[in-house]
Amino acid sequence: MKDFTEGDVVRQVIHFSTPIMFGNLLLSLYGMINLIWVGRLLGHQAVAAVSASLPIVMLMPAFLIGLGMATNVLVAQAFGRRDRAMLKKILANSLIASTSFCLLISLVALLFRRELLDWVNAPPEIQGMALSYLTIIMATLVFQFFINWMNGMLRGLGDATTVVKILILLAALNVVFVPLFIRGVGPLPPQGVAGAAWGTALAAVSTCIIGYLYLLRFNPYVDMQNWDYRLDRRIIREVFVIGVPASLQMMVISLAGVIIVSLVNRYGTTVTAAFGIGMQIDMLATIPFMSIGMAVTTIAGHNLGARKLDRVSRTLRASIWFGLAVAFACTVALLIFPDDIGAVFLKESPEKARVLSTVRGYYRWMAFIFPCFAVIFAIQGVLRSAGDTLALLGLSFIAMFVIRIPLAYCLAGPVGLKQDGIWMAMLSSSALAAFLNWLYFRYGPWKKRRILGDRDTGARED
């Protein structure tokens, strides 16, 4: 655990972002490993089935992700104030509320899974495979959630190293379990696309158990028996005031993704498979920027808790420059090597060349989106650390539903650019989002927010 209210800001941003980055790279191996094994062992239609399910898998847990972000913010500010009693209440209240919502979301997704696949226009020839994959992932969502919740709590405490250890275990178990369930071994029959979901589920269950037992030995805040389970209305209120807009922001982004996939699916399984590959690569390439944003949330949260605003501004500047350096590398790599990167996901087949050609066209536009991400995620990390998630919701809605979706439909349809129009709209909306986020950071009222900072619990650490 680290206190970020003192010391060199640039070094803290780089050193704290790096393990988070590595941990998130491992976490991304969920989808990456699944898609590689599915593509190599089962073919491009199976890739399309997983790709069609992916926006739904991202949409349904969005509310939980927001509550997890709220926990991160509350933990970071309480830790910055050295308020241990408040930490125990935050951990207990947030876990109970979030787990309850997770179970509710799983139930809703299972009841309406067929309608959700129809909603994204999943091609008829892949609906059976997509349905089996989606059913298993949603039924075991609570285990995925608990891992994310633990990691958010640890990041709020400034402990990114333990997060990496947990995610190394998770990724390693995925590497072992996913191909075994797809192909079958011994008495276990081949499970096909469903096997990828079963492998992911078993890896998550195992990681939950092993990870929590490990944490009990090394982190004094993790033992659930020592938490304060008394209902605290202020904490519950802040969890929802911060978490609901953050969740809605994730849902806005995910819903926009569902609509984009629905539009992409109109152009056939080749384009759907290429877009699925592009999304997986983009998720991987976005991880550094997302990780920097997570680091900024914790570092800025500690300093906002200690009311050191000058260190918050220095943290933002350092994070943007760090992100732009990473963005340049991502853009160059994807412009030069789109075929080589895309080929990792596909086995040899007559359709391979057509899918790779579509991937190549995708990155003629989308390779330039990463500098936008460098600015967006850094600024959002600061705003989120202040609990100003309502503004982030509004900014995301404008970028996605005022710009991206209408522009995508216009360029793909009436203008006649087809899938290229969709890629152009995605890039344009991200550039606008970067500008809008900067304007709000410069002129918005986020600095005036205070989170649970006026109550003296009588149990602060000096």
3D architecture notes:
It is built from 17 helices and no strands. By secondary structure, it is mainly alpha-helical. It has one domain (9-448). α7 (141-156) runs parallel beside α9 (193-218). The longest helix is centred in the middle third of the chain and has 37 residues, at 269-305. It is globular. 55% of the residues are buried. The model is unreliable at 454-462 (pLDDT under 50).
Supply database-style keywords.
462 residues; mainly alpha; 17 helices; globular; disordered C terminus
How do the helices and strands line up, and which of them pair or pack?
Elements: H1 9-42, H2 44-59, H3 62-80, H4 84-111, H5 113-119, H6 127-139, H7 141-156, H8 160-183, H9 193-218, H10 233-264, H11 269-305, H12 309-336, H13 338-343, H14 352-366, H15 370-385, H16 389-412, H17 419-443
Q: Major beta sheet, specifics? A: none
- On the 0 to 100 scale, the average pLDDT is 82
Instruction: State the total count of DSSP E strands.
Output: 0
Number of discrete domains: 1
- Residues in β-strands, percent: under 5%
**Poorly predicted spans:** 454-462
The best one-word shape is: globular
Helical content band: over 70%
User: How big is the Rg?
Assistant: 22 Å
Structure annotation, total helices: 17
How does the helix and strand content classify structurally?
mainly alpha
Distance between the termini: 16 Å
H/E element string? Answer: HHHHHHHHHHHHHHHHH
Question: Quick recap of the structure?
Answer:
With 462 residues, this protein is mainly α.
